[in-house]
Design a protein that fits this description.
Elements (H helix, E strand, L loop, with lengths): L1 H7 L10 H11 L9 E10 L7 E10 L7 H19 L9 E8 L6
Antiparallel strand pairs: 1-2, 1-3
Pfam families: DUF4504
Protein name: 3484_t:CDS:1
């Protein structure tokens, strides 16, 4: 179900972990879930209101295990930004600026909501 949701929301990275392996690993390590204490790449796409330097809203936020991507991630984030920027230009909206911001950071959390 998570993969269809990610596809419908147009997440650029959709992945599924092996459930049996994850459960065995969690039990042996006493971890909260399969992504607990994993290095994750967190990506957020923001919209900024016209004329407001600091007032921005999150349009999309997702994370994925840092280990599943290699050097192609810059290209993925560039395509993501291009996709939403083209939609903003199509809308010709006076409320939002015509360009979104993509922010990428690394996080490591003890428990991750799936």
């Amino acid at each position: 179900m998570i993969t269809i949701t990610g596809w419908l929301l147009e997440y650029p990275i959709i992945y599924v972990q092996n459930i049996e392996e994850s459960i065995n690993e969690m039990e042996s390590n006493n971890e909260g879930n399969c992504l607990g204490n994993e290095e994750l790449r967190l990506c957020r796409v923001y919209l900024r209101k016209q004329g407001a330097d600091k007032n921005r809203q999150i349009l999309l936020s997702f994370s994925f295990p840092k280990s599943i991507l290699s050097t192609t991630e810059k290209e993925i984030f560039a395509r993501l930004k291009s996709l939403f920027n083209s939609r903003l230009l199509e809308q010709q909206n006076a409320f939002w600026e015509n360009e979104c911001e993509v922010e990428v950071s690394d996080v490591c959390l003890p428990v991750v909501a799936l």
